[in-house]
Design a protein that fits this description.
Radius of gyration: 23 Å
Number of helices: 5
Bound molecules: the ligand Nc1nc2c(c(=O)[nH]1)N[C@H]1C(S)=C(S)[C@@H](COP(=O)(O)O)O[C@H]1N2, molybdenum atom
Distance between the termini: 59 Å
Oligomer: single chain
Largest sheet: 5 strands, mixed
Helix content: 25-40%
Mean pLDDT: 85
Strand content: 15-25%
Structural class: alpha+beta
Low-confidence stretches: 38-51
Length: 257
């Protein structure tokens, strides 16, 4: 004859034990992650503060987050897209570093530094001759606003094929600067090769407006607005983090969505 009372008590005990172990496990993992972050390369108590007064231990935690999110981010992670009719007609203009009036679009060429000493100068017509991709997505700024907008251009991954950047695309980062170097971003290669990332020359089916980054800007739906550099002057590849305007002001380097 089974003893029901005994069975009920032992089931309860098992549950309590499981919960206790879960708690211990969670605490252990939290402690390990925190310690790893603190003792990682970025942790330097002598420096005290990191960029823009961000304590380096917080920065280290952000970097740990970056490695976790870049691991999770794959081509399968697509930003939600919308029908053309959902795109707003009046697109907000935000941020004008490096997009001043003193600029001659007719003299512009994209400077592509393939390697030190190997730079290509590419015209906008050469870029427009590449396969065109449209993207309608919810553009999000870290200031808190977002809007559904419609952009078109060449996929960065198609650009990589066209300009023989296979070797470079194994490097860890891509750096982009405005022609006057006033604004600059660094992007992890995985995100720039994402199928929704484009070198963009059209908005709402029309040539990109000047204050929105003509002749060419970056549209990278897997990242916040700060990374969508307007008016690209230079593109280069690097295994070290390229300089990044808002990272230097204390924002997250990855700024992924
Ligand atoms: N050159 C340049 N690109 C830039 C910025 C800037 O100040 N200068 N601001 C960024 C920010 S914070 C946002 S939200 C988007 C805004 O793009 P939009 O003006 O087309 O809406 O551009 C990004 N790209
Ligand atoms: Mo932004």
């Amino acid at each position: 004859m089974p003893n029901f009372k005994e069975e009920i008590i032992s089931a309860k005990q098992v549950r309590n034990k499981t919960l206790a172990w879960l708690l211990v496990f969670t605490l252990l993992v939290t402690a390990i992650v925190t310690m790893a972050a603190m003792f990682s390369r970025e942790w330097n108590p002598r420096k005290g503060k990191g960029a823009a007064g961000i304590p380096s231990q917080f920065r280290a935690v952000m970097n740990t987050n970056e490695s976790i999110f870049s691991f999770l981010l794959s081509d399968a992670h697509l930003a939600k897209t919308f029908p053309r009719s959902a795109a707003v007609k009046r697109v907000k203009v935000n941020g004008n570093y490096g997009v001043g009036k003193d600029f001659d679009p007719s003299a512009w060429k994209l400077q592509l530094i393939r390697m030190p000493g190997d730079t290509l100068y590419i015209t906008i017509d050469e870029i427009k001759a590449l396969p065109k991709t449209d993207i309608i997505f919810d553009f999000k700024c870290i200031e808190g606003w977002s809007q559904v907008t419609h952009w078109a251009g060449v996929r960065f991954s198609d650009f990589v094929k066209k300009y023989d950047l296979g070797e470079q695309s194994h490097m860890r980062y891509v750096g982009l600067h405005t022609p006057d170097n006033a604004y600059y971003v660094g992007i992890d290669t995985k995100s720039i090769l994402h199928p929704q990332t484009i070198l963009c020359y059209e908005m709402n089916g029309l040539p990109l407006p000047m204050d929105q980054g003509a002749p060419l800007r970056l549209i990278i739906p897997v990242k916040y607005g700060i990374k969508h550099l307007k008016r690209i002057g230079t593109i280069f590849f690097s295994n070290n983090r390229p300089p990044d305007y808002w990272f230097e002001k204390g924002y997250d380097y990855f700024s992924g969505l």
